[in-house]
Amino acid sequence: MTRILRGRLLSFKDSPRRAGAAAYRYLEDGALRIEAGCIVEVGEARDIMARAPAQAVVDDHSGRLILPGFIDTHIHYPQTRVIGSYGEQLLEWLQKYTFVEEQKFADPARAAAVASFFLDELARQGTTTAMVYCAVQPESAEAFFTEAERRNARMIAGKVMMDRNAPPALTDDPQRGYDESKALLTKWHGRGRLGYAISPRFAITSTPAQLEAAGALAREFPDAHVQTHLSENAAEIAMTKSLYPEARDYLDVYERVGLVGPKSVFGHCIHLEPREIASLARHRGVAAFCPTSNLFLGSGLFDEAGLDAAGVRVALATDVGAGTSYSMLQTANEAYKALQLRRQSWPALQAFYQLTQGNARALGLEDRIGALEPGLEADIVVLNSRATPAMAHRMESVDGDLKEELFVLMTMGDDRSVAQTYVAGEKAKPD
Ligand code: GUN
Ligand code: ZN
Question: Ligand 2 centre from 220 Cα, in Å?
Fold first, then answer.
């Protein structure tokens, strides 16, 4: 089937911070043609429509913005009933809420139901790709991959490896964590649009032997991703240093076992020391900025400008359920505010670059997703800048300025602003 989307096309080729006006392409009356789940042609609507086959389905989104689908680089699917849990900081929050909820994922039926809810919610928010933590039970990852495959969604996920400092029901051991991860990776990595992320939860919940095993797996499968947490909270950093006295710093716990490389995404990275920053940049590792989570747990303020200037690859993420919104628009809103507190500027064009092309690059997926270009997969979000009365009212004073409109969208927008989501060229926003 041929499908044509018509509307205001916006797509980034590069970071506006580096490339300025050449960073993006905007077509006021543009269109793109989709065949077999991929974008095959992009251009002015009159040209694309003139060449369209007679039987093409035309989705007319005139007046709305059409962008590549949003990408969330760090999120926990077993935490859909943890989001909005009161009062604690990281280590207490994990024990009091998260480790209680994640035990329930031993039940495959529950895991399947939550995976379905979760993937519906991402589609509702215009998020078409995510890098996802499952729970420790391999059944939880199995359920997630099964549901993502059914929807033909481009997702990266992995079961967390954890073998200490957690309830017995949530611990594997170095051999079992390795074997179960390898079995899941072998089954799912590269199958359809799915990828595997080797996922040692963080230094505190793994023994040195388990991190060694995770590093061995990463060496065996160098094209798989690695995801973990790094330098989120003061008490966490102190405990990590006491558990790994031989490590030079927190990053070194991962570095010495070979877990730091261009496919590695580290959640938070708030309190990094100069050596860690230099090493993260040298190894091409990615720092995932999780603003709603960092504020919610009182973890601290991410240094976006500092890490970028030091050459660290930066991504943006929700980190639900410590994060408080599934919406990447709301995540950009909170990122902007958190950066304001550090007097760092983050213009709307930079934000929308990050939600799409920037996060695609962070995951090494820019040859598949993250732009509206021929040959890329047709994962797309359609945005309505007047979705609520307050937005429509505010838009009355925008007067054709794209940057201002984008800033209104990221400040006031959420799932109500997502008019439609396309996954591999098919409509995916739940009714
Ligand atoms: N560190 C280890 N596990 C987690 C988690 O589930 N959420 C957050 N925010 N930090 C973590
Ligand atoms: Zn996290």
Answer: 25
Nearest Cα to 199, choosing from 227, 162, 233, 236? 227
CA atoms within 13 A on the CB side of 373: 15
Ligand 1 closest atom vs CA 98: 6
pLDDT tens-place string over residues 375-412: 999 999 999 999 999 999 999 999 999 999 999 999 99
Euclidean distance between CA atoms 116 and 119, whole angstroms:
5
Give the closest residue (by CA) to ligand 1 atom 1: 229
Which CATH number fits the domain that encloses residue 125?
3.20.20.140
**pLDDT at res. 222:** 98
DSSP 386-418: T-SHHHHHHHTTTTT-HHHHHHHHHHH-SGGGE
Q: How far apart are the CA of 297 and the centre of ligand 2, in A? A: 11
Nearest alpha carbon to residue 12 among 359, 263, 299, 329:
359
Instruction: Note the pTM of the prediction, 2 decimals.
Output: 0.99
The residues facing 154 across adjacent strands are 129
User: Average pLDDT of 198-213?
Assistant: 98
- Looking at the DSSP bridge assignments, the partners of residue 119 are none
Average pLDDT over residues 421-429: 98
Beta strands (DSSP E) in 170-279 are: 194-200, 225-230, 264-268
For tokens 């392409």, name the residue.
25
- Structurally, the chain folds into a number of domains equal to 2
Percentage of residues in the chain having pLDDT higher than 90 = 100
Give the Å distance between the CA of 229 and the centre of ligand 2: 6
Label residue 87 left, alpha or beta by phi (over 0 means left) and psi (-120 to 50 means alpha).
Answer: left
In a shared domain, residues 353 and 395: no
> Containing domain of residue 287, as a range?
70-362
Does residue 202 line the site of ligand 1, with CB under 6 A? Answer: yes
Output the pLDDT for position 431: 87
Question: If we measure between CA atoms, which residue out of 98, 150, 148 comes closest to residue 118?
Answer: 148
